[in-house]
Amino acid sequence: MASASGLFQCSDPKTWKRVSDMYWEVVAAKGAKQKKLLELDRWYQEELPALIGARPHKSLTSEEMVKLMEWKLTRGKFRPRLKQLVSSNAASTVESCTRKAFQLLPDVSAAIEELCQLKGIGPATASASEEAWTPHRVELCLWTWKVAEKHCPELLESLGDEKERPAKKLKTKQ
């Protein structure tokens, strides 16, 4: 079975799309052991964007930022100190930093830099958003691949030889 770097080396857009389409199956497979993951992931992928979009000035509340960190820690490596650090940010600071970060978009680097001023927030958490083939969607595919290797490798088997093709330029939609 190839590693996540094997997917990263793959230049076939169809393979990336198929891995992307497996996302919820893989979350469910991993969530069988971590019950909270499916609930948090649905909140992050579906509810949170709607909440943010409904606000006149896009921002996150302190509670949403803490829940975002909980999602991140449930999905990846557990680091208990991070949730405590994120919780220690003043609600007004979270709202003003996140509002400014949204205003800085599409300058992703500047937005990430703004968010990294918050305690417990680094580039990985700060970059968790966007649509189409963005760094976030690429990250979701790589996470899907890596977790599928451990929890449901049969899903990757269905990709067949596509994942082993030599590198070609990856076409993306912008």
TrEMBL record:
Organism field: Engystomops pustulosus
Name of the protein in its database record: HhH-GPD domain-containing protein
